[in-house]
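Hello Y.,

Per our agreement to keep a running log of every chain we model this quarter, I'm adding this entry. I've kept the format consistent with earlier entries: sequence first, then predicted structure.
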Amino acid sequence: MARKKKKRPFAPTDLRRLQFVSDPKIHPQGEQVVFVVRRADDGDDKNRYRSKIWRINARGGGLRRISAEDRDAEAPLWSPDGQQLLFLSKHGEDEKKQIYLLPADGGEAQLLTSIDTGVRWAEWSPDGRSIACLSDIDPRKKARSREARPLADDVQVIDTAFWQFNGLGSRIDKRHHLFVIPARGGRPRQLSDGLWSIGGPFPLSEPVCFGLDGQWLYYLATPDPADDWAAARRVEIFVIRRDGKERRQLTDFGGMFNAVRMSPAGELLAIGSLMEQGWASPNRLWSVDPETGTTRPVETGVDRSMGDAINCDVRFPGRQHEPWISSDGRRALVRVTDRAAVRLAEINLESGALSWSSPEDVSVLAFHSTPDGASRVELRTSMTELPELWVAAGDAPPRRLTKLNDRLLAQRQVFPGLPANVTASDGAQV
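Predicted structure for the entry above:
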């Protein structure tokens, strides 16, 4: 009998073998899934990851790379009619990410934008004719140009607490602002400007959404960006016409919204916290009137925080498109941090009833659903498994779609986490 080969511990060199899956997007008809794969660059002395977009049939099979070998690509997003795939791409470290469009049936990707500062986020309008995007601008540039003796380009005056972030570097001279561009091509129209950022001081996954008619855009921003303490605790919903006119603050929430989506029923759904316990405050689901800005909590009866509150270094972030809302506006899908896992939950928006859609020992790092909710893709991970794609269709149980890291994991020792329960001062089990 052959002796079973002993598994070895992970070594630093294994980092170059790991394939990090992120940002899955299912086609509107549910036929195929696109996603991003990142790997450490073997032949690069700049200590960086390279990202490519891959496609796979939702039934399994047909896995292939669809982005260029010599370019980084990320943030794929199907058009509402499923005819085109939007993504962000760049060639080298010094190049800025721009929007590209790829026909769904194949062909060459076409460059859509040439914004000097690049693009960091993009969203289709409901009719697919326009694309909203965020780009970094330097609102202090005009002021510096008027100085008699301007500082050298490599000098930064730090006068804000939020001046740099992991993976983004210094943000002193950068603010995220909103642009709209025709999907057929043309000159981008800048809709916002100023010493504040859309999304507030922190990068958010869902800071902007279109209204149902595509004529209005709703976005998150802090109403008092000059006050670091206020900016760290308050992000409201604003609204602006797509021509850049009639900008106004919609809500007077008093807390921090971190995601906003438009329901097909015509109301806004947002995820946010009133910050009553500071950063320990749980995020909840809120219904927002798009005309008056009136906010109402969606009472689920579950004492858990919406979103992903688990930290993990073997993953890459991506768009969440959360909350997902059914076409009749009666159901929503959100992720909820439940003890040691991030679970997917379905919420009845009329009754508030919450039901779990994923197991308690699995974390859903991201998900994306077809508009009718018939199919969805999930990015799942656990204590002993790296993130991989799963597909759920109809009433059938979810099934695994990718196995990019199975060969390596089969050869390495992986140790499960052990639960550690403590009793809080009020008797609650944590």
